[in-house]
Amino acid sequence: MPVNLPPPDPASLLPVAGVELGIARAGIRKPGRRDLLVMRIAPDSEVVGVFTQNRFCAAPVTLCRERLHLESGVRALLVNTGNANAGTGADGLRRAARTCAALAGLMGIQPEQVLPFSTGVILEPLPDDRIIDALPNAVADLRPDNWAAAAEAIMTTDIVAKAASRRLTLDGVEFVVTGIAKGSGMIHPNMATMLAFVATDAPVSCEALEAILRHAVNRSFNRVTVDGDTSTNDSCLLIATGATAAPVVMDDDDARFAPLRDAVTDLMVQLAQAIARDGEGATKFIEIAVEGGRDEDEAKRVAYAIARSPLVKTAFFASDPNLGRILAAIGYAGIDDLEVDGVRLWLGDVLVAERGGRAPDYREADGARVMAEADIRVRVDLARGHAATTVWTCDFSYDYVKINAEYRT
Amino acid sequence: MPVNLPPPDPASLLPVAGVELGIARAGIRKPGRRDLLVMRIAPDSEVVGVFTQNRFCAAPVTLCRERLHLESGVRALLVNTGNANAGTGADGLRRAARTCAALAGLMGIQPEQVLPFSTGVILEPLPDDRIIDALPNAVADLRPDNWAAAAEAIMTTDIVAKAASRRLTLDGVEFVVTGIAKGSGMIHPNMATMLAFVATDAPVSCEALEAILRHAVNRSFNRVTVDGDTSTNDSCLLIATGATAAPVVMDDDDARFAPLRDAVTDLMVQLAQAIARDGEGATKFIEIAVEGGRDEDEAKRVAYAIARSPLVKTAFFASDPNLGRILAAIGYAGIDDLEVDGVRLWLGDVLVAERGGRAPDYREADGARVMAEADIRVRVDLARGHAATTVWTCDFSYDYVKINAEYRT
Q1: What is the ipTM for the molecules in this complex?
Q2: pTM of the model
């Protein structure tokens, strides 16, 4: 069950002027499921994205990369769940292009102005005919206040839909940021480890929007892992429609850049944490904060060694303060000259280990008290420098095995 | 349950002249359990070893490294299960040294001639008094034909004891190689991913024995992973007593070097595979053979990406040919310039994927047939060069979670 993750209140999701969303049932994997999402984006919007670094990237990722920076601009997103269109070779590219062309025809735009996104089973042909048949219904459904239904339409093994909004006033003008994301398994950077679509009505230059996306993704979606598997389909898009009249935010010299960047980052952190809270089979949400690294890379390596360890994750599932497993993960994280005598480990506010062994004041009852909570913080000080990082993950339960053993049945 | 892994037949385990083994009950973790092993080694034996690369290595590993190449030589091994004596700092070193000194006193040798080995729970103090109290019984039990009981004494979550022998005749003289190993969870190179003790009565120089050990370990224990967690205690020792009269094997110019090396390697491969077959919760044994790499390192990276993926391992548990997960793992293994169109993937003898997608002749029923077997071979051709490697692992089941969630209860 998702950990401290209530479903989003539809009334809290603010429409973004210049973005309309339409949902339909294409029967891609399950009959009757609302599994198709179309997003219409106003002309002259800026759209930037980051994508998986998996070499077996999906056909839609390849098409997105080709089309994202064409002069014609992006006018629509076409998103399906139930089939990843990955490991499908040249045929997969053809099918993705066919669905985009069909949507372009319905909307009176060019095929290359449509970006496709898919999530679901790998290595199976995309049922493009069924998607094309359902497109007219999705287009007929297009409206600005459809974010909650869109968040549901892109779910796979997610239990809770993931969506959030922010409102901010800059130089007396009110702007909105709203985003949705999906992801529950096959979650590991780089990159964005899921699908996420975030839009604002602020006017932002392409360069400034790229800078905001990079900043936000590195502090959000690139810091979450469920199972250490980097997906073939990860995509995160940031859209600025500029529909709300105001001078364009050109670069970080603009006083509005930082607050806008921080609002986008804050929203993406909420969505990224929601992915870990709704990780497959999750019963615990775990934040792993590593400090005292020589550089951020080694702090990250230690954080991910802990976050990925099946032994650590099953101990969290059991609420068992078997904390030697965390020390072992720190020890094999690949810092060859790590002096373990300097390392300190906290569970919540309890100092567990120092000077290469158990802290003198540590009592198992203190560890057990923290372990019994649903939200748990692990803190590690490497005592080598001043670099730090934080990553989020969940525990490893029977249900993770069940969900993934039965995924296709 | 262990996969195609019958327990060793005690009658098949050949004594090694110059090695005696004694077992006792120390009550380290469970009362009444035979949890303590002493091995007495004849004077002038050559002893070489490889140890974990985990920075949080256990106190006994630190002592072994210090003592292994002292001029006084190694005369005894002291092995306990139930407590890893890892994450125990300076106090752990003192306790390990105390137990060694006590054994040395009983045997009339020097304390630094005793090598300690521990396996079990991390971050808890070694009950050195209980070990010392049990040592006289272990010494009284010393005899050459005790290998089967020794293999049982070092088990932790192992279900089946792991032991094997080889007999070979070189230049008309018959030699014996016998070894035992333990390991079931926290299994991942480098290094040796468990405890293993292998002995031969052949006379071998220290240099030649080191070369044999490196060769054998790189083809055996360094190729097995259960959960990707590199233990704090991994140790593999190779002992040559030289008790059988023959000229010493000085180096690889000796015609007997290669057959002896191959016998040791063959035995260690059997023990390493036994660890994967008896991996925690295992229901499938999986061999992953990667060929066509530019170098062995990239072949290994791909093999381990597949072998470590929880998504791949749960699919094997479910006998579900959800083979896109293997493609995804190949794609994120870290070969940045991998051309996926050239990659081919076989499951058993069935060609599953080529040219970036599903092979035209692949039928799900063929994949399902292979998946239903207990011993499964995955073959990947990267089509980039001529380097190859093979690793062994097991699937990921409910019982893995159960065993590791309840490990300390």
Answers
A1: 0.78
A2: 0.83
